[in-house]
Specification:
The chain is mainly α. It is built from 7 helices and no strands. Helix 1 packs antiparallel against helix 4. It starts with a helix and ends in a 6-residue tail after the last helix. One of its GO terms (biological process) is Notch signaling pathway. It is found in: Membrane.
Length: 247
Protein backbone atom coordinates (compact mmCIF):
# COMPACT_ATOMS: atom_id res chain seq x y z
CA UNK A 1 0.00 0.00 0.00
CA UNK A 2 1.01 3.66 -0.08
CA UNK A 3 0.83 6.80 1.98
CA UNK A 4 -2.39 7.65 0.16
CA UNK A 5 -3.94 4.37 1.32
CA UNK A 6 -2.89 4.98 4.91
CA UNK A 7 -4.34 8.48 4.88
CA UNK A 8 -7.48 7.07 3.29
CA UNK A 9 -7.93 4.60 6.14
CA UNK A 10 -7.55 7.39 8.70
CA UNK A 11 -10.08 9.56 6.89
CA UNK A 12 -12.48 6.64 6.58
CA UNK A 13 -12.38 6.09 10.32
CA UNK A 14 -12.34 9.73 11.41
CA UNK A 15 -13.49 11.76 8.39
CA UNK A 16 -17.14 12.16 9.48
CA UNK A 17 -15.97 13.15 12.97
CA UNK A 18 -13.68 15.75 11.43
CA UNK A 19 -16.59 17.18 9.46
CA UNK A 20 -18.77 17.29 12.57
CA UNK A 21 -15.94 18.92 14.48
CA UNK A 22 -15.54 21.67 11.89
CA UNK A 23 -19.28 22.26 11.55
CA UNK A 24 -20.28 22.17 15.22
CA UNK A 25 -17.57 21.63 17.83
CA UNK A 26 -14.97 24.11 16.58
CA UNK A 27 -17.46 26.98 16.78
CA UNK A 28 -17.28 27.02 20.59
CA UNK A 29 -13.98 26.77 22.51
CA UNK A 30 -15.73 25.13 25.44
CA UNK A 31 -16.88 22.28 23.20
CA UNK A 32 -13.32 21.85 21.92
CA UNK A 33 -12.08 21.54 25.49
CA UNK A 34 -14.86 19.07 26.25
CA UNK A 35 -13.90 16.98 23.23
CA UNK A 36 -10.19 16.96 24.11
CA UNK A 37 -10.73 16.12 27.77
CA UNK A 38 -13.25 13.41 26.89
CA UNK A 39 -10.89 11.85 24.36
CA UNK A 40 -8.06 11.80 26.88
CA UNK A 41 -10.24 10.29 29.60
CA UNK A 42 -11.61 7.54 27.36
CA UNK A 43 -8.14 6.75 26.03
CA UNK A 44 -6.87 6.38 29.58
CA UNK A 45 -9.77 4.07 30.40
CA UNK A 46 -9.05 1.89 27.36
CA UNK A 47 -5.36 1.72 28.24
CA UNK A 48 -6.24 0.73 31.80
CA UNK A 49 -8.61 -1.99 30.58
CA UNK A 50 -6.05 -3.33 28.13
CA UNK A 51 -3.41 -3.44 30.86
CA UNK A 52 -5.70 -5.51 33.07
CA UNK A 53 -6.66 -7.99 30.36
CA UNK A 54 -3.13 -8.20 28.94
CA UNK A 55 -2.22 -10.57 31.76
CA UNK A 56 -4.76 -13.12 30.48
CA UNK A 57 -4.12 -12.85 26.73
CA UNK A 58 -3.90 -14.61 24.39
CA UNK A 59 -6.66 -17.02 25.34
CA UNK A 60 -5.68 -20.63 24.83
CA UNK A 61 -9.17 -21.78 23.95
CA UNK A 62 -11.40 -21.60 20.93
CA UNK A 63 -14.47 -20.95 23.05
CA UNK A 64 -16.23 -17.59 22.89
CA UNK A 65 -16.95 -17.09 26.58
CA UNK A 66 -13.54 -15.54 27.45
CA UNK A 67 -13.99 -12.93 24.71
CA UNK A 68 -17.57 -12.34 25.85
CA UNK A 69 -16.27 -11.76 29.37
CA UNK A 70 -13.75 -9.22 28.07
CA UNK A 71 -16.46 -7.33 26.20
CA UNK A 72 -18.90 -7.49 29.11
CA UNK A 73 -16.44 -6.17 31.67
CA UNK A 74 -15.13 -3.51 29.29
CA UNK A 75 -18.61 -2.26 28.47
CA UNK A 76 -19.60 -2.27 32.14
CA UNK A 77 -16.51 -0.26 33.06
CA UNK A 78 -17.06 2.28 30.29
CA UNK A 79 -20.75 2.66 31.09
CA UNK A 80 -19.86 3.32 34.73
CA UNK A 81 -17.42 5.93 33.47
CA UNK A 82 -20.18 7.45 31.34
CA UNK A 83 -22.35 7.83 34.44
CA UNK A 84 -19.41 9.44 36.25
CA UNK A 85 -19.02 11.89 33.37
CA UNK A 86 -22.71 12.72 33.58
CA UNK A 87 -22.43 13.58 37.27
CA UNK A 88 -19.32 15.63 36.56
CA UNK A 89 -21.20 17.43 33.81
CA UNK A 90 -24.15 18.20 36.12
CA UNK A 91 -21.75 19.70 38.64
CA UNK A 92 -20.21 21.80 35.89
CA UNK A 93 -23.66 22.87 34.70
CA UNK A 94 -24.54 24.08 38.19
CA UNK A 95 -21.35 26.14 38.29
CA UNK A 96 -22.06 27.66 34.88
CA UNK A 97 -25.65 28.47 35.80
CA UNK A 98 -24.52 30.09 39.05
CA UNK A 99 -22.02 32.19 37.12
CA UNK A 100 -24.73 33.13 34.61
CA UNK A 101 -26.94 34.33 37.47
CA UNK A 102 -24.15 36.54 38.79
CA UNK A 103 -23.59 38.22 35.43
CA UNK A 104 -27.30 38.31 34.53
CA UNK A 105 -26.96 35.90 31.63
CA UNK A 106 -29.33 33.06 30.66
CA UNK A 107 -28.71 29.49 31.75
CA UNK A 108 -27.57 26.84 29.31
CA UNK A 109 -30.09 26.22 26.56
CA UNK A 110 -31.11 22.67 25.71
CA UNK A 111 -29.14 22.94 22.47
CA UNK A 112 -26.02 23.83 24.48
CA UNK A 113 -26.52 20.76 26.66
CA UNK A 114 -26.92 18.51 23.64
CA UNK A 115 -23.79 19.93 22.04
CA UNK A 116 -21.82 19.26 25.22
CA UNK A 117 -23.06 15.66 25.17
CA UNK A 118 -22.18 15.45 21.48
CA UNK A 119 -18.63 16.65 22.16
CA UNK A 120 -18.26 14.16 25.00
CA UNK A 121 -19.57 11.34 22.84
CA UNK A 122 -17.28 12.28 19.99
CA UNK A 123 -14.38 12.11 22.42
CA UNK A 124 -15.42 8.56 23.27
CA UNK A 125 -15.66 7.64 19.61
CA UNK A 126 -12.35 9.24 18.63
CA UNK A 127 -10.59 7.53 21.53
CA UNK A 128 -11.98 4.19 20.37
CA UNK A 129 -10.87 4.83 16.78
CA UNK A 130 -7.38 5.90 17.85
CA UNK A 131 -6.95 2.94 20.17
CA UNK A 132 -8.36 0.19 17.96
CA UNK A 133 -7.63 1.50 14.46
CA UNK A 134 -5.28 4.46 14.02
CA UNK A 135 -2.67 2.96 16.33
CA UNK A 136 -2.51 -0.08 14.02
CA UNK A 137 -2.18 1.81 10.75
CA UNK A 138 1.55 2.50 10.70
CA UNK A 139 2.28 -0.52 8.44
CA UNK A 140 -0.49 0.63 6.09
CA UNK A 141 1.73 3.51 4.97
CA UNK A 142 4.29 1.03 3.63
CA UNK A 143 4.54 -0.71 0.25
CA UNK A 144 2.32 -3.70 1.12
CA UNK A 145 -0.89 -4.57 2.92
CA UNK A 146 -2.00 -7.29 5.30
CA UNK A 147 -4.81 -9.83 5.25
CA UNK A 148 -6.04 -12.14 7.97
CA UNK A 149 -7.12 -15.71 7.37
CA UNK A 150 -10.60 -15.17 8.78
CA UNK A 151 -11.41 -12.30 6.40
CA UNK A 152 -9.50 -12.70 3.13
CA UNK A 153 -11.92 -10.46 1.22
CA UNK A 154 -10.56 -7.17 2.58
CA UNK A 155 -7.26 -5.87 3.95
CA UNK A 156 -7.04 -5.91 7.72
CA UNK A 157 -6.52 -2.14 7.81
CA UNK A 158 -9.67 -1.52 5.79
CA UNK A 159 -11.72 -3.72 8.10
CA UNK A 160 -10.31 -1.87 11.12
CA UNK A 161 -11.20 1.52 9.62
CA UNK A 162 -14.73 0.43 8.69
CA UNK A 163 -15.37 -1.00 12.15
CA UNK A 164 -13.89 2.11 13.78
CA UNK A 165 -16.25 4.37 11.84
CA UNK A 166 -19.24 2.37 13.06
CA UNK A 167 -18.10 2.63 16.67
CA UNK A 168 -17.38 6.35 16.37
CA UNK A 169 -20.96 6.84 15.20
CA UNK A 170 -22.39 4.66 17.97
CA UNK A 171 -20.37 6.29 20.75
CA UNK A 172 -20.92 9.85 19.56
CA UNK A 173 -24.68 9.71 19.39
CA UNK A 174 -25.32 7.24 22.20
CA UNK A 175 -23.76 9.80 24.57
CA UNK A 176 -26.40 12.34 23.52
CA UNK A 177 -29.09 9.73 24.14
CA UNK A 178 -27.67 8.71 27.52
CA UNK A 179 -27.26 12.28 28.80
CA UNK A 180 -30.80 13.07 27.74
CA UNK A 181 -32.03 9.96 29.52
CA UNK A 182 -30.19 10.86 32.71
CA UNK A 183 -31.54 14.41 32.55
CA UNK A 184 -35.16 13.37 32.02
CA UNK A 185 -35.07 10.18 34.07
CA UNK A 186 -36.06 8.28 30.91
CA UNK A 187 -35.15 4.64 31.52
CA UNK A 188 -35.41 3.73 27.86
CA UNK A 189 -32.78 6.30 26.89
CA UNK A 190 -30.60 5.37 29.85
CA UNK A 191 -30.54 1.69 28.92
CA UNK A 192 -30.21 2.29 25.19
CA UNK A 193 -26.54 3.34 25.31
CA UNK A 194 -25.18 0.32 27.23
CA UNK A 195 -27.42 -2.00 25.21
CA UNK A 196 -26.12 -0.84 21.83
CA UNK A 197 -22.57 -0.67 23.19
CA UNK A 198 -22.68 -4.30 24.31
CA UNK A 199 -24.46 -5.41 21.14
CA UNK A 200 -21.86 -3.72 18.93
CA UNK A 201 -19.06 -5.24 20.97
CA UNK A 202 -20.53 -8.73 20.65
CA UNK A 203 -20.94 -8.32 16.90
CA UNK A 204 -17.18 -7.88 16.57
CA UNK A 205 -16.83 -11.51 17.65
CA UNK A 206 -18.12 -12.51 14.23
CA UNK A 207 -14.66 -11.59 12.97
CA UNK A 208 -13.34 -14.67 14.76
CA UNK A 209 -15.33 -16.90 12.41
CA UNK A 210 -14.27 -17.67 8.87
CA UNK A 211 -15.52 -14.88 6.60
CA UNK A 212 -17.38 -13.52 9.60
CA UNK A 213 -16.57 -9.94 8.64
CA UNK A 214 -18.95 -10.26 5.69
CA UNK A 215 -21.81 -10.72 8.15
CA UNK A 216 -20.54 -8.79 11.17
CA UNK A 217 -19.79 -5.47 9.48
CA UNK A 218 -23.27 -4.99 7.94
CA UNK A 219 -24.86 -5.92 11.28
CA UNK A 220 -22.57 -3.47 13.07
CA UNK A 221 -23.62 -0.71 10.71
CA UNK A 222 -27.21 -1.68 11.33
CA UNK A 223 -26.63 -0.93 15.01
CA UNK A 224 -24.98 2.39 14.08
CA UNK A 225 -27.94 3.37 11.90
CA UNK A 226 -30.39 2.46 14.67
CA UNK A 227 -28.38 4.58 17.12
CA UNK A 228 -28.32 7.53 14.73
CA UNK A 229 -32.03 7.25 14.02
CA UNK A 230 -32.96 6.90 17.68
CA UNK A 231 -30.83 9.91 18.56
CA UNK A 232 -32.43 12.00 15.82
CA UNK A 233 -35.91 11.05 17.01
CA UNK A 234 -35.02 11.86 20.62
CA UNK A 235 -33.47 15.22 19.72
CA UNK A 236 -36.52 16.19 17.65
CA UNK A 237 -38.83 15.28 20.52
CA UNK A 238 -36.89 17.27 23.08
CA UNK A 239 -36.52 20.31 20.84
CA UNK A 240 -40.24 20.22 20.12
CA UNK A 241 -41.07 19.99 23.82
CA UNK A 242 -38.71 22.86 24.66
CA UNK A 243 -39.45 25.04 21.66
CA UNK A 244 -40.03 28.10 23.82
CA UNK A 245 -36.61 27.89 25.48
CA UNK A 246 -34.46 27.66 22.35
CA UNK A 247 -32.14 30.40 21.15
Amino acid sequence: MTVAAGIGYVLLALGPSLSLFIAVISQKPFLVLTLLSSTLLWLMSLIALSAIWRAFLPFKTGLLWPYTLVILTSVAFQEALRLFLWRLYKRMEQILDAFADRVSKPHLFITDKMQIALAGGMGHGVAHAVFFCVSLLTPAFGPATYYVEKCPQMPFFLVSAIVALAFVTIHTFSMVIAFSGYSEGNRMDQYFAPAVHFTAGMLTLTNLASRGCVIGIPLLYGVAIITLGYCGKMVWRRLTENRGTLH
